[in-house]
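A reminder before we start the practical. When you read a complex entry, don't treat the lines as separate problems. The point of joint prediction is that each chain is placed relative to the others, so the output describes one connected object in space. Small molecules and nucleic acid strands, if listed, are placed in the same frame. In the example below there are two entries. Take a minute to note the order of the lines before looking further.
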Amino acid sequence: MIRRLSPWSVARALLLWVAALTVTLPLLWVALASFKSPAQLNDPGLVIFNPNLANWARVLEAGILESAGRSAMVAAVTVAISVVAGSMGAYAISAYKAGGSATRFGILAAQVLPPAVLVFPFLTMAYALRLDTTYVPVIFAHLSFVLPVITWFLIGFFDAVPRSLEEQARVDGFSRFAAFRLVVLPQVLPGIGAAAIFGFTLSWNDMFYGLILAPTQETILPVAIAAFNTFRGVELGAMSAAIIIAVVPVVIASFFIQRRLVQGISGGAVKF
Amino acid sequence: MTFRWAMLAPVLTITGVAVGFPLGYALYLSLTDYRLTSRGAPDFVGLENYVFVLTDPRMWNAFSNTAVYVIVAVALQTVLGLAIALALQKQQWARDLTRAMLLAPMFITPIAVGLTFRFLLNDQLGAIPAALRTIGISYDFFGPGNAMITLALIDVWQWTPFMVLLLLAGLESIPRQPLEAARVDGASARYTFRRVVLPLLTPVLTVAVLLRSLDALKVFEYVYATTRGGPGTETETIQYFTYQTGIQFFRLGEASAVAFVLLAIVMTLIVILFRRLQRSSAR
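Here is the predicted structure of the whole assembly.
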């Protein structure tokens, strides 16, 4: 069989190739730069050279892994609270129409608040309650945008669960909460997994709140990366290594949730 | 019926503490002369902060910079996003891998993206200006007149995938019948796209543009990573201006007032868009 190559399919393939190169080349170039010596960094076109690990040693010494650990801790706590509260709320909204459309709109509205509005109250409260040396303010600040997103996301997944499932469980003698926890919840577990990973990346990626609210000595990852930009001039090699450390985990995570993300968005967010 | 409220209670409580309370407190701050540096209790000054910021040319400069940024970035993202989503929908070979790869940038922390491009586009050390020089073009990406556009292009790199994600979800939920009908009637591909696909995609497209615009309004990391508002105040965006006023100059009252002016504009935008959306879905 002879496949006819229409100009459209050529244009389509070309577009995807250009897009793929635009996405990958900058990151590959930064990865390359993280193995260069300061002298080699002055030659942007240098591709083949003797790699050295000095930059990597330098970022590890500066405590980048500790910062990553703190970011992971903040993200894990934020996501744990958001998933528990969000799945209960999303179920109430999906199955019982709790609060009507006002709740749905309120959730979306909470998402659009500029961080600049909320950050100063968090800051003054952190000082007033003497919490400014802890991660509590950052976690609350992250909850303000992670919880609405996760709830919104899960509504679509709960919408897809047939109501008869819960009714059957009630007939079998389950309480309402037990029916939710033991019968309905397992049905949306994949959705919860995707929502949790997505929420994790949102928290992991935030710099604005972390910069202002996290303790200055014990920074979270995005702030630590930015520090290579200002501290004693720009340390390009070390900064490149730090960027790669921040990028790799979320890109791997994104590979796993990409398919469900399309589903979650077409279920919850795009429906009006 | 108490069950539904009990289930909703945790979300409402946390949202109340993490959003409702700070929002009210910020409104209070915007009406006082609160400074981080002063020890005494803040004085109530009424609308003084609002009058001050609304007559401050720096704030209007920040607003117009942000407007340019949002319009350039979102317009490019919409066109590119639609093209890529249409291409991806037809893509069969290495389908999941291609999608995952093209969506990857939206998962990267924006500060890392900002620093990557600061480095990549740097006049002396960056690969792109070096490549341009070999073909005889000299272009300063962060120079006067260019910097704001460069920031918008960084936004396009990171957030076109978000557009693709939403539009792909929208394209895949378009019912088959109208497409089949158009094909049976012998409509050309271009006609089908303009008269069948695009109208059906409009609600999703509107939501995508809305979400992207709202997010682009919050731009902070790229400015912080690359230009810090310069050259001059050419790339000072609202979020960066608020950060400077509040954190570097400690004037929380004024900073909160700026934030509320922004919020008022955002809310107006949303209400207008919701109205249009309802009208188009009623048709």
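Discuss with your neighbour: Chain B has two domains: 19-55+251-283, 68-249. What might explain this?
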